[in-house]
Amino acid sequence: MDASLLTIQPASAEPIYRQIVEQLRRLIAGGQIAPGELLPSVRDVAGFHAINPMTVSRAYGMAESEGLLERLRGKGMVVAQAHRSTQTQAQRLGLLEPQLQALARQTTELELPAEPVLRRLSKLLGE
């Protein structure tokens, strides 16, 4: 994994450290990063995204406290071996629930019908 796999939205209302933790949850649950895989260093992520290293450190610390990551002395942070992507599809879908609720709320606020939004979402998903 390299720092480019993470997407940071500085203008988002969600704090950057939470964006990182949520993405790590999804990437691990989806099997895109595997147990034992080394994460990019705090300095690499901070430099690539032009954010404060303490923000990345906080995100990694939260993920470590949740058991998603583990710190290997002399190597850095890796995806925890104990954490396997054994989550069901419903559990992985649950990780998207906050974003789906936000999309539904914004669609209602914009007074858009569901059909064009669903078509656009399908197109973005490559379907």
Key words describing this protein structure:
two-stranded antiparallel ribbon, 5 helices, mainly alpha, 2 strands, 127 residues
- The total beta strand count reads 2
Low-confidence stretches: none
Distance between the ends: 26 Å
Radius of gyration computed on alpha carbons:
16 Å
Strand residue percentage: 5-15%
Coarse shape: globular
- Major sheet size, sense and barrel closure: 2 strands, antiparallel
Strand order, main sheet: write it out: 1-2
SSE order, one letter for each helix or strand: HHHEEHH
Mean pLDDT over the full residue set: 90
Helix content: 40-55%
In short:
This protein is mostly helical and 127 residues long.
Question: What does this entry look like structurally?
Answer:
With 127 residues, this protein is mainly α. Helices cover 53% and strands 6% of the residues. The protein is built from five helices and two strands; from the N terminus they run αααββαα. It has a two-stranded antiparallel ribbon with strand order 1-2. Helix 1 (16-29) packs across helix 3 and helix 2 (42-49) crosses helix 3. The protein is globular and about 55 Å long. 17% of the residues are buried. The model has no long low-confidence stretch (mean pLDDT 90).
Task: List the topology elements.
Layout: H1 16-29, H2 42-49, H3 53-65, E1 69-72, E2 76-79, H4 89-109, H5 114-124
Antiparallel strand pairs: 1-2
